[in-house]
Write a structure and sequence with these properties.
Layout: H1 2-61, E1 69-73, H2 75-78, H3 82-85, E2 91-95, H4 101-105, H5 108-113, E3 119-123, H6 136-146, E4 151-155, H7 168-184, E5 188-190, E6 197-198, E7 203-204, H8 217-239
Parallel strand pairs: 1-2, 1-3, 3-4, 4-5
Antiparallel strand pairs: 6-7
Length: 240
């Protein structure tokens, strides 16, 4: 009987040790990870809201001026130094890192309609390639209906490299749809996929990207050289 009691006490002790060990693992690893994710989500939301606040302030500041070109999109646009690459235009950068076509749809009033630029450049969809076509055309309809005098440029998705290279086939397919939509709505279309592509390996050229998805200054130079002639022509047509 005494032996059984000792075995029972030992079993309970092992169970308590196991419970404590699990608790240490759970609270030591899982909760911090969840906290990091929550902190990250909070930071993303704060950044998003700060961008919208900035856009509202810019819209008021630009009220007495006519913006030449507004750029809408995700991190590729957000990281585009427009003052450096387009000093000849009055520009507005309305890109937000991590943006999707669905997120953009919710902020079109502040980001574009209230601004009423001469030209709007749209590069969006890289963050939701699988679902971007669900509402991409709706974005175009909104621009046509709300800004009938604004010229619109649809920029293709870029080619990608590294960990994102497997998405190139889908990006190319979506680009074919974007091009057809540009024709449907009489918008300009700019192919950015091809000039950034290394045709030998079928990926975004290494010198044009920092990580396979985002662009280096050299990549932005290609972007600028590809887009500028189109912008010049559209702005000239607005003057006429």
């Amino acid at each position: 009987m005494q032996k059984r009691s000792k075995i029972l006490i030992a079993a309970i002790a092992l169970l308590m040790i196991a419970t404590v060990s699990y608790s240490i693992f759970f609270f030591g690893f899982h909760l911090p990870k969840k906290k990091l994710e929550a902190d990250r989500a909070r930071q993303v939301l704060e950044y998003y809201q700060s961008k919208l606040t900035l856009y509202k302030a810019e819209n008021e500041r630009f009220a007495d001026y006519e913006v030449d070109v507004a750029f809408l999109g995700d991190s590729l646009t957000d990281g585009y130094d427009l003052l450096k690459y387009y000093p000849q235009y009055l520009t507005a950068n309305r890109g937000i890192g991590g943006e999707t076509t669905h997120g953009l749809a919710s902020r079109m009033q502040i980001s574009l309609y209230d601004l009423r630029p001469k030209v709007a450049v749209l590069l969006i969809g890289g963050n939701n390639l699988d679902t971007m076509l669900e509402n991409y055309e709706a974005l175009l309809v909104g621009m046509r209906d709300n800004l009938p005098e604004t010229k619109v440029v649809l920029v293709s998705l870029t080619s990608m490299g590294g960990d994102w290279a497997h998405k190139n086939q889908l990006a190319a397919y979506n680009n074919a749809i974007i091009k057809r939509l540009a024709q449907k709505y009489a918008f300009a279309f700019v192919d950015l996929y091809t000039p950034l592509l290394d045709e030998v390996i079928g990926e975004l050229r290494a010198e044009y990207t920092t990580d396979g998805a985002h662009l280096t200054p050299l990549g932005y130079e290609v972007f600028t050289d590809t887009l500028t002639p189109v912008l010049d022509n559209l702005l000239q047509s607005v003057k006429e």
